[in-house]
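Fresh eyes needed here. Kindly weigh in on this sequence plus structure tokens:
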Amino acid sequence: MKERAKSLIRRIELLIFLELCAFNFLLAQIIAVRPQEISFQSNDYQIHGWFYQAKGNGPFPVVVLLQGFPGKDGDLFELGQNLSKEGYSTLSFNYSGTWKSEGIFLPETSLKSVQAAIDYLKSEKIIKTYKIDTSRIILVGYSYGGGIALLASLYHRSLNKVISIAGGDLSVVAKMVEENPDFRKAHREMLDHCMSDSTLA
């Protein structure tokens, strides 16, 4: 009899535990900020990205996240998700020529993608739609994106802040591609995997 009672108690405890897990999962889904897929033009090419809207009345500062080399299809270290919960709207995108973005992937076109992202945020329609404070646009880049963020800051003096996380030195990669055939081959294969336009010889 005692064993049956213990077994029943264990089953009830297990059911309660599973229900709590399901509740927490659903709660996390509700709390999670779902990004809106967006696109903007850069030199006649369509750039694909995501916008994480901060909650509240605004206007909000905006963080532009610049991905590493050559980025990924989605958020960067969940910064978009987390920053939007802290009152910072966040824009993340794929550089020209990578993933779902059109064009050719080069440092020059990456810089142009950054310019296009800033122009997009400063357009009248987007300012109203997302309640943007254009006096507080912040660039945050990781690795390759850190290098691009620092380069972009030379051309955008109006930027509020620039943050480089483990910023990459593009000249080091260029030298390795030039001097090491094995690295060049591996590098090309990696790029071919994620490029939307890899037709260059």
